[in-house]
Amino acid sequence: MPHDHHDHSHEGLSPSGHPYRADNDGPLTYWQTMEIAMRELLIEKGITTAAQITARIEEMDRRSPADGAMVIARAWTDPEFKALLLRDGSAACKSMGFEPGVLRLIAVENTPDVHNVIVCTLCSCYPRNLLGLPPDWYKTRAYRSRVVKEPRKVLAEFGLILPDAVQVRVHDSTADMRYIVLPARPAGTEDLDQTALADLITRDSMIGVGVPSQPTAQPTAQKTVTKAAR
Amino acid sequence: MAETLHNWVRVRAMMPPGHVRTPSYLRGKRGQVERPLGPFHNPEQLAYRLKADQQPLYRVRFSMAEVWGKDAENPGDTLDAEIYAHWLEPCDAP
Questions:
Q1: Which ipTM value was assigned to this complex?
Q2: Which of A40, A52, A133, B37 is such that its CA lies 20 to 30 A from the CA of A84?
Q3: Phi and psi at residue A207, in whole multiples of 5°?
Q4: Which CATH architecture has domain A65-207?
Protein backbone atom coordinates (compact mmCIF):
# COMPACT_ATOMS: atom_id res chain seq x y z
CA MET A 1 0.00 0.00 0.00
CA PRO A 2 1.44 3.37 -1.01
CA HIS A 3 0.46 5.07 2.26
CA ASP A 4 1.48 2.28 4.63
CA HIS A 5 4.47 4.21 5.97
CA HIS A 6 2.20 6.96 7.42
CA ASP A 7 1.70 6.88 11.18
CA HIS A 8 -2.09 7.17 10.85
CA SER A 9 -4.30 4.58 9.20
CA HIS A 10 -5.62 4.99 5.66
CA GLU A 11 -7.37 1.64 5.93
CA GLY A 12 -10.26 1.43 3.45
CA LEU A 13 -9.28 4.61 1.61
CA SER A 14 -8.14 4.97 -2.01
CA PRO A 15 -4.52 6.04 -2.71
CA SER A 16 -5.81 9.61 -3.01
CA GLY A 17 -7.32 9.37 0.47
CA HIS A 18 -11.00 9.04 -0.47
CA PRO A 19 -13.31 6.29 0.78
CA TYR A 20 -14.06 3.56 -1.78
CA ARG A 21 -17.60 3.62 -3.05
CA ALA A 22 -19.47 0.35 -2.69
CA ASP A 23 -20.09 -1.55 -5.93
CA ASN A 24 -23.44 -0.79 -7.47
CA ASP A 25 -24.41 -4.41 -8.06
CA GLY A 26 -25.98 -6.85 -5.65
CA PRO A 27 -27.81 -10.13 -6.04
CA LEU A 28 -30.72 -10.14 -8.49
CA THR A 29 -34.14 -9.44 -7.06
CA TYR A 30 -37.04 -11.79 -7.66
CA TRP A 31 -38.46 -9.60 -10.42
CA GLN A 32 -35.08 -9.12 -12.12
CA THR A 33 -34.70 -12.91 -12.25
CA MET A 34 -38.24 -13.20 -13.65
CA GLU A 35 -37.47 -10.60 -16.34
CA ILE A 36 -34.34 -12.45 -17.46
CA ALA A 37 -36.14 -15.83 -17.46
CA MET A 38 -39.03 -14.39 -19.49
CA ARG A 39 -36.69 -12.68 -21.97
CA GLU A 40 -34.65 -15.86 -22.48
CA LEU A 41 -37.78 -17.94 -23.02
CA LEU A 42 -39.19 -15.48 -25.57
CA ILE A 43 -35.91 -15.62 -27.49
CA GLU A 44 -35.60 -19.42 -27.20
CA LYS A 45 -39.13 -19.92 -28.51
CA GLY A 46 -38.47 -17.59 -31.44
CA ILE A 47 -41.12 -15.05 -30.40
CA THR A 48 -38.59 -12.23 -30.42
CA THR A 49 -34.86 -11.87 -30.93
CA ALA A 50 -32.12 -10.34 -28.82
CA ALA A 51 -31.52 -7.86 -31.64
CA GLN A 52 -35.17 -6.74 -31.57
CA ILE A 53 -35.03 -6.19 -27.81
CA THR A 54 -31.81 -4.18 -28.11
CA ALA A 55 -33.31 -2.13 -30.94
CA ARG A 56 -36.36 -1.30 -28.81
CA ILE A 57 -34.20 -0.24 -25.85
CA GLU A 58 -32.10 1.92 -28.16
CA GLU A 59 -35.23 3.47 -29.59
CA MET A 60 -36.37 4.42 -26.08
CA ASP A 61 -32.94 5.75 -25.18
CA ARG A 62 -32.83 7.94 -28.29
CA ARG A 63 -35.78 10.00 -27.07
CA SER A 64 -34.70 13.07 -25.20
CA PRO A 65 -35.91 16.51 -24.18
CA ALA A 66 -34.47 17.78 -27.48
CA ASP A 67 -37.47 16.15 -29.21
CA GLY A 68 -39.95 18.03 -27.04
CA ALA A 69 -37.95 21.24 -27.52
CA MET A 70 -38.40 21.00 -31.30
CA VAL A 71 -42.15 20.69 -30.85
CA ILE A 72 -42.26 23.72 -28.53
CA ALA A 73 -39.99 25.82 -30.78
CA ARG A 74 -42.28 25.14 -33.71
CA ALA A 75 -45.33 26.11 -31.65
CA TRP A 76 -43.59 29.41 -30.82
CA THR A 77 -43.09 30.23 -34.50
CA ASP A 78 -46.06 28.63 -36.24
CA PRO A 79 -49.49 29.74 -34.93
CA GLU A 80 -51.35 27.05 -36.83
CA PHE A 81 -49.15 24.34 -35.34
CA LYS A 82 -49.55 25.85 -31.87
CA ALA A 83 -53.35 25.68 -32.25
CA LEU A 84 -53.06 22.01 -33.26
CA LEU A 85 -50.71 21.26 -30.34
CA LEU A 86 -53.19 22.74 -27.84
CA ARG A 87 -56.17 21.03 -29.49
CA ASP A 88 -54.62 17.60 -30.07
CA GLY A 89 -51.09 17.17 -28.73
CA SER A 90 -50.70 13.63 -30.07
CA ALA A 91 -51.60 14.66 -33.64
CA ALA A 92 -49.19 17.60 -33.46
CA CYS A 93 -46.30 15.35 -32.37
CA LYS A 94 -47.14 12.77 -35.01
CA SER A 95 -47.07 15.46 -37.71
CA MET A 96 -43.45 16.13 -36.73
CA GLY A 97 -42.53 12.45 -36.82
CA PHE A 98 -42.65 11.82 -33.06
CA GLU A 99 -44.70 8.69 -32.45
CA PRO A 100 -47.02 9.52 -29.53
CA GLY A 101 -47.83 5.89 -28.68
CA VAL A 102 -51.14 4.81 -27.22
CA LEU A 103 -51.27 7.49 -24.56
CA ARG A 104 -52.65 10.89 -25.45
CA LEU A 105 -50.65 14.07 -25.07
CA ILE A 106 -52.12 17.28 -23.70
CA ALA A 107 -50.12 20.51 -23.98
CA VAL A 108 -50.86 23.18 -21.37
CA GLU A 109 -49.86 26.75 -22.14
CA ASN A 110 -48.07 29.15 -19.83
CA THR A 111 -49.28 32.74 -20.19
CA PRO A 112 -48.53 35.97 -18.29
CA ASP A 113 -51.32 34.93 -15.86
CA VAL A 114 -50.94 31.14 -15.66
CA HIS A 115 -48.05 28.80 -14.85
CA ASN A 116 -48.49 25.05 -15.33
CA VAL A 117 -46.57 22.24 -13.64
CA ILE A 118 -46.85 18.48 -14.15
CA VAL A 119 -46.71 15.57 -11.73
CA CYS A 120 -47.92 12.00 -11.39
CA THR A 121 -48.83 11.51 -7.74
CA LEU A 122 -49.72 7.82 -8.21
CA CYS A 123 -46.53 6.63 -9.92
CA SER A 124 -44.27 8.23 -12.54
CA CYS A 125 -46.37 8.91 -15.66
CA TYR A 126 -44.31 11.14 -17.93
CA PRO A 127 -44.36 11.97 -21.66
CA ARG A 128 -41.49 9.53 -22.33
CA ASN A 129 -42.18 9.34 -26.05
CA LEU A 130 -41.43 13.04 -26.33
CA LEU A 131 -38.99 13.79 -23.48
CA GLY A 132 -37.26 10.46 -22.86
CA LEU A 133 -36.93 9.03 -19.37
CA PRO A 134 -38.06 11.19 -16.43
CA PRO A 135 -35.47 12.74 -14.11
CA ASP A 136 -35.02 10.83 -10.84
CA TRP A 137 -36.54 13.61 -8.73
CA TYR A 138 -39.78 13.39 -10.74
CA LYS A 139 -40.32 9.91 -9.31
CA THR A 140 -39.54 10.77 -5.69
CA ARG A 141 -42.26 10.73 -3.08
CA ALA A 142 -41.14 14.20 -1.99
CA TYR A 143 -41.83 15.81 -5.39
CA ARG A 144 -45.04 13.85 -5.98
CA SER A 145 -46.58 14.58 -2.62
CA ARG A 146 -45.38 18.16 -2.19
CA VAL A 147 -45.99 19.71 -5.61
CA VAL A 148 -49.75 19.15 -5.32
CA LYS A 149 -49.86 20.71 -1.85
CA GLU A 150 -47.25 23.47 -1.92
CA PRO A 151 -46.36 23.98 -5.59
CA ARG A 152 -45.00 27.50 -5.07
CA LYS A 153 -42.59 26.35 -2.41
CA VAL A 154 -41.41 23.44 -4.58
CA LEU A 155 -40.98 25.72 -7.61
CA ALA A 156 -39.00 28.17 -5.47
CA GLU A 157 -36.66 25.32 -4.53
CA PHE A 158 -36.10 24.81 -8.28
CA GLY A 159 -35.26 28.54 -8.47
CA LEU A 160 -38.59 29.66 -9.91
CA ILE A 161 -40.32 32.28 -7.78
CA LEU A 162 -43.74 33.24 -9.13
CA PRO A 163 -45.64 36.42 -8.28
CA ASP A 164 -48.95 35.91 -6.42
CA ALA A 165 -50.82 37.32 -9.42
CA VAL A 166 -49.78 34.31 -11.52
CA GLN A 167 -52.11 31.36 -11.02
CA VAL A 168 -50.36 28.03 -10.56
CA ARG A 169 -52.06 25.07 -12.21
CA VAL A 170 -50.84 21.65 -11.15
CA HIS A 171 -51.67 18.76 -13.49
CA ASP A 172 -51.78 15.32 -11.89
CA SER A 173 -51.36 12.65 -14.62
CA THR A 174 -53.70 10.17 -12.97
CA ALA A 175 -54.87 8.14 -15.98
CA ASP A 176 -54.50 7.94 -19.76
CA MET A 177 -53.16 11.42 -20.62
CA ARG A 178 -49.58 12.63 -20.62
CA TYR A 179 -48.73 16.31 -20.29
CA ILE A 180 -46.21 18.79 -21.61
CA VAL A 181 -45.98 22.45 -20.68
CA LEU A 182 -45.85 24.93 -23.55
CA PRO A 183 -43.66 27.55 -21.87
CA ALA A 184 -43.84 31.24 -22.75
CA ARG A 185 -41.36 32.35 -25.39
CA PRO A 186 -38.69 34.53 -23.75
CA ALA A 187 -38.53 38.19 -24.70
CA GLY A 188 -35.69 39.18 -27.00
CA THR A 189 -35.88 36.02 -29.12
CA GLU A 190 -37.71 37.57 -32.09
CA ASP A 191 -34.75 37.05 -34.44
CA LEU A 192 -34.06 33.41 -33.55
CA ASP A 193 -35.00 30.55 -35.83
CA GLN A 194 -36.59 27.31 -34.60
CA THR A 195 -33.25 25.56 -34.09
CA ALA A 196 -31.87 28.40 -31.96
CA LEU A 197 -35.16 28.62 -30.04
CA ALA A 198 -35.15 24.87 -29.34
CA ASP A 199 -31.81 25.23 -27.58
CA LEU A 200 -33.43 27.58 -25.03
CA ILE A 201 -36.12 25.06 -24.13
CA THR A 202 -35.02 22.97 -21.16
CA ARG A 203 -36.52 19.72 -19.92
CA ASP A 204 -37.55 21.44 -16.70
CA SER A 205 -39.39 24.18 -18.61
CA MET A 206 -41.51 21.48 -20.30
CA ILE A 207 -42.32 19.85 -16.93
CA GLY A 208 -43.06 23.30 -15.51
CA VAL A 209 -40.47 23.44 -12.73
CA GLY A 210 -38.48 25.97 -14.76
CA VAL A 211 -38.73 28.44 -17.60
CA PRO A 212 -36.74 28.53 -20.87
CA SER A 213 -33.19 29.88 -20.82
CA GLN A 214 -32.54 33.45 -21.88
CA PRO A 215 -30.71 33.85 -25.17
CA THR A 216 -27.00 34.64 -24.83
CA ALA A 217 -25.37 37.67 -26.47
CA GLN A 218 -24.62 35.95 -29.79
CA PRO A 219 -27.07 33.09 -29.80
CA THR A 220 -27.22 32.30 -33.52
CA ALA A 221 -23.52 31.67 -34.13
CA GLN A 222 -23.14 29.67 -30.93
CA LYS A 223 -26.21 27.51 -31.54
CA THR A 224 -25.04 26.54 -35.02
CA VAL A 225 -21.87 25.12 -33.53
CA THR A 226 -23.79 23.15 -30.90
CA LYS A 227 -26.11 21.63 -33.47
CA ALA A 228 -23.31 20.67 -35.80
CA ALA A 229 -21.51 18.90 -32.96
CA ARG A 230 -24.43 16.55 -32.30
CA MET B 1 -57.92 27.23 -24.82
CA ALA B 2 -60.74 25.38 -23.15
CA GLU B 3 -61.09 28.01 -20.48
CA THR B 4 -64.85 27.50 -20.24
CA LEU B 5 -65.35 25.05 -17.42
CA HIS B 6 -68.27 22.67 -17.49
CA ASN B 7 -70.52 21.17 -14.81
CA TRP B 8 -69.71 20.72 -11.13
CA VAL B 9 -68.90 17.23 -9.94
CA ARG B 10 -67.88 15.59 -6.69
CA VAL B 11 -65.38 12.74 -6.52
CA ARG B 12 -66.99 9.83 -4.71
CA ALA B 13 -65.56 9.37 -1.25
CA MET B 14 -65.28 5.60 -1.42
CA MET B 15 -62.17 3.59 -0.54
CA PRO B 16 -62.32 0.32 -2.48
CA PRO B 17 -59.30 -1.99 -2.44
CA GLY B 18 -57.33 -2.78 -5.61
CA HIS B 19 -55.70 -0.83 -8.41
CA VAL B 20 -57.51 2.51 -8.29
CA ARG B 21 -56.37 5.57 -10.25
CA THR B 22 -58.39 8.15 -8.32
CA PRO B 23 -55.97 9.79 -5.86
CA SER B 24 -57.27 9.58 -2.33
CA TYR B 25 -56.47 13.27 -1.66
CA LEU B 26 -59.23 14.17 -4.15
CA ARG B 27 -61.96 11.88 -2.84
CA GLY B 28 -65.01 13.81 -1.67
CA LYS B 29 -63.74 17.01 -3.33
CA ARG B 30 -65.77 19.19 -5.68
CA GLY B 31 -64.45 20.46 -8.99
CA GLN B 32 -65.50 21.45 -12.49
CA VAL B 33 -65.08 19.39 -15.62
CA GLU B 34 -62.32 21.02 -17.67
CA ARG B 35 -62.86 18.79 -20.70
CA PRO B 36 -64.22 15.35 -21.51
CA LEU B 37 -61.55 12.98 -22.84
CA GLY B 38 -63.64 10.19 -24.29
CA PRO B 39 -64.06 6.54 -23.25
CA PHE B 40 -61.16 4.54 -21.80
CA HIS B 41 -60.93 1.03 -20.39
CA ASN B 42 -61.42 0.93 -16.64
CA PRO B 43 -57.97 0.35 -15.10
CA GLU B 44 -59.53 -1.22 -11.99
CA GLN B 45 -60.47 -4.22 -14.19
CA LEU B 46 -57.58 -4.01 -16.67
CA ALA B 47 -55.05 -4.36 -13.85
CA TYR B 48 -56.42 -7.82 -13.06
CA ARG B 49 -56.86 -8.89 -16.70
CA LEU B 50 -60.61 -8.79 -16.32
CA LYS B 51 -62.81 -7.79 -19.22
CA ALA B 52 -62.69 -4.02 -18.85
CA ASP B 53 -65.68 -1.66 -19.29
CA GLN B 54 -65.22 1.55 -21.17
CA GLN B 55 -65.67 4.53 -18.88
CA PRO B 56 -65.82 8.17 -19.95
CA LEU B 57 -62.77 9.97 -18.59
CA TYR B 58 -62.83 13.63 -17.55
CA ARG B 59 -60.26 16.22 -16.66
CA VAL B 60 -61.58 17.85 -13.50
CA ARG B 61 -60.24 21.14 -12.12
CA PHE B 62 -60.22 21.67 -8.36
CA SER B 63 -59.28 24.81 -6.47
CA MET B 64 -56.49 24.38 -3.94
CA ALA B 65 -58.93 25.83 -1.36
CA GLU B 66 -61.31 22.91 -2.04
CA VAL B 67 -58.54 20.30 -1.91
CA TRP B 68 -56.57 21.53 1.11
CA GLY B 69 -59.01 23.80 2.95
CA LYS B 70 -57.38 26.43 5.10
CA ASP B 71 -53.99 24.72 4.69
CA ALA B 72 -53.95 25.69 0.99
CA GLU B 73 -50.73 27.44 0.03
CA ASN B 74 -52.61 29.75 -2.35
CA PRO B 75 -56.38 29.13 -2.44
CA GLY B 76 -56.81 30.38 -6.02
CA ASP B 77 -54.26 27.99 -7.53
CA THR B 78 -55.72 24.89 -9.13
CA LEU B 79 -55.21 21.19 -9.52
CA ASP B 80 -56.37 19.20 -12.57
CA ALA B 81 -56.68 15.42 -12.56
CA GLU B 82 -58.20 12.76 -14.81
CA ILE B 83 -61.12 10.99 -13.16
CA TYR B 84 -63.27 8.18 -14.59
CA ALA B 85 -67.03 8.71 -14.75
CA HIS B 86 -67.88 6.01 -12.21
CA TRP B 87 -65.97 8.04 -9.61
CA LEU B 88 -67.96 11.24 -10.23
CA GLU B 89 -71.38 12.42 -9.13
CA PRO B 90 -73.08 15.69 -10.07
CA CYS B 91 -73.11 18.35 -7.35
CA ASP B 92 -73.91 22.01 -6.79
CA ALA B 93 -71.29 24.73 -6.97
CA PRO B 94 -69.74 25.22 -3.50
A1: 0.95
A2: A133
A3: -90, -25
A4: Alpha-Beta Complex (3.90)
